[in-house]
């Protein structure tokens, strides 16, 4: 039982009458004698809409038949006549994207020598893979202008049915036999296609080429047509004006201001690092003077942090080990971490010593002979590690982050 596909001859048909021919056992799939609903095929997504008052959530191409999948089990009976309404905003949008793709594929092949390898129509943007090794930003802009000139030229688009054996001038040879449905853009393209298209290129509306990126073998070009191109441009304009507001500037000045801000941040970061080092030197000197060396002349420091990454206090450890024979342990309760540094004259391998101490408490870590870092499973393990490294927590000094 074949479904008569009304969209083949009239892609603009949105309301139609039909007779129910069959309903699936679960009452979710309805088959009609004729339909204006487009099923997912040839890359073009299916229509949505209403059928006899029920919502159509999917349309499936089942060879000769078109299945209308309903949101709720159907109460329709075989033989009943009904009306169907295709959700037009969605369909026309897909017609714009699909026809735009024909135009772009033709233009890329004819002007740039890049045949289209594959096409994907997405919910937000669509993509076209072309056989090009790379596409520069300038070429993309040039191609976008050409595409829009072809839109403005308002070429007529027609559908004909031709015998596959005799059809000539097709952009891509079809492996189908019998009757072919051929979509032609006057002076531009002839392609075998079963999808829905607009009548004239002018109806595609503006075409926006969003970008090009290398895939493994080809180049993927992201594009938007018609209402989508305008919506995306509106979205971009909003983002840009919101950003401009942050700078209290005009949108055209944003790139330069962002660049200046980036340079300023880098400069401040350099200043901050210098200040942290200066502060660490002062802090280290005070701690050194307040600590008594053991009988071997070795000073043992334990810096206890209640919060903050131990790594942030590496400058202090470095400043201390630069002053003379000592070992420095820095522990933090949040995030849990330990840092262990030893001075050149200490004859203690920081990496090995810390790794051994951590292994006992189920922690992990390591590093060089002079500087090592690690983590422990819980805060109670920190005092244990300190004891094993010969620094006693009770005599430790604390440092606010
Ligand atoms: Zn098509």
Describe the structure.
With 401 residues, this protein is α+β, with helices and mostly antiparallel strands. The chain has three domains: 4-86, Elongation Factor Tu (Ef-tu), domain 3, CATH 2.40.30; 92-239, Threonyl-trna Synthetase, Chain A, domain 2 (Threonyl-tRNA Synthetase, Chain A, domain 2, 2-Layer Sandwich); 292-398, Diaminopimelate Epimerase, Chain A, domain 1. Helix content is 32%, strand content 29%. The protein contains seven helices and 21 strands. It has a six-stranded antiparallel barrel with strand order 2-3-7-6-5-8. The longest helix has 36 residues, at 254-289. Mean pLDDT is 93; it is low at 394-401. Bound molecules: zinc ion. Zinc ion is lined by residues 98, 102, 183, 193, 195, 197.
Which SSEs are present, and which pair or pack?
Layout: E1 4-5, E2 15-23, E3 29-32, E4 34-35, E5 49-51, E6 54-62, E7 65-70, E8 81-86, H1 88-112, E9 116-121, E10 126-130, H2 137-152, E11 157-163, E12 179-185, E13 189-192, E14 207-214, E15 219-225, H3 226-247, H4 254-289, E16 299-305, H5 314-323, E17 326-333, E18 336-342, H6 350-361, E19 364-367, E20 371-375, H7 381-388, E21 397-398
Parallel strand pairs: 1-4, 16-17, 16-21
Antiparallel strand pairs: 2-3, 2-8, 3-7, 5-6, 5-8, 6-7, 9-10, 10-15, 11-12, 12-13, 14-15, 17-18, 18-20, 19-20
Helix pairs in contact: 1-2, 4-5, 6-7
Bound molecules: zinc ion.
Zinc ion (ZN) binds next to helix 1.
């Amino acid at each position: 039982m074949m479904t008569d596909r009304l969209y083949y001859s009239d892609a603009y048909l949105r309301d139609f009458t039909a007779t129910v021919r069959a309903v699936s056992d679960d009452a979710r799939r309805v088959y009609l004698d004729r339909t204006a609903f487009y099923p997912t095929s040839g890359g073009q997504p299916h229509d949505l809409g209403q059928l006899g008052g029920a919502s159509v959530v999917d349309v499936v191409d089942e060879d000769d038949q078109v299945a209308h999948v309903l949101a709720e089990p159907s109460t329709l009976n075989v033989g009943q006549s009904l009306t169907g309404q295709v959700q037009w905003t969605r369909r026309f949008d897909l017609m714009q994207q699909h026809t735009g793709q024909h135009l772009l594929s033709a233009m890329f092949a004819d002007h740039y020598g890049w045949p289209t390898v594959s096409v994907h129509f997405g919910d937000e943007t669509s993509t076209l893979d072309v056989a090009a090794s790379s596409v520069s930003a300038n070429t993309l802009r040039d191609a976008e202008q050409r595409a829009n000139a072809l839109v403005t030229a308002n070429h007529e688009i027609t559908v004909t049915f031709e015998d596959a054996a005799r059809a000539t001038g097709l952009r891509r040879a079809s492996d189908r036999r019998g009757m072919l449905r051929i979509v032609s853009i006057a002076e531009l393209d002839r392609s075998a296609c079963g999808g829905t298209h607009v009548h004239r290129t002018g109806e595609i509306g503006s075409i926006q080429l969003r970008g090009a990126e290398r895939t493994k073998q080809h180049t993927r070009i992201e594009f938007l047509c018609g209402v989508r191109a305008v919506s995306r441009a509106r979205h971009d304009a909003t983002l840009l004006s919101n950003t401009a507001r942050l700078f209290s500037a005009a949108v055209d000045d944003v790139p330069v201001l962002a660049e200046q801000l980036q340079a300023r941040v880098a400069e401040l970061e350099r200043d901050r690092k210098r200040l942290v080092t200066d502060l660490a030197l002062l802090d280290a000197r005070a701690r050194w003077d307040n600590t008594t060396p053991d009988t071997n002349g070795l000073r043992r420091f334990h810096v206890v942090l209640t919060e903050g990454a131990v790594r942030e206090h590496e400058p202090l450890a470095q400043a201390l080990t630069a002053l003379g024979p000592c070992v420095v342990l820095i522990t933090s309760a949040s995030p849990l971490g330990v840092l262990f540094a030893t001075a050149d004259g200490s004859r203690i391998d920081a990496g090995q010593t810390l790794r051994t101490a951590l292994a006992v408490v189920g922690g992990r870590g390591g590093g060089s002979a002079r500087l090592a870092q690690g983590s422990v499973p819980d805060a109670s393990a920190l005092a244990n590690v300190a004891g094993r490294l010969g620094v006693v927590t009770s005599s430790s000094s604390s440092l606010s982050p």
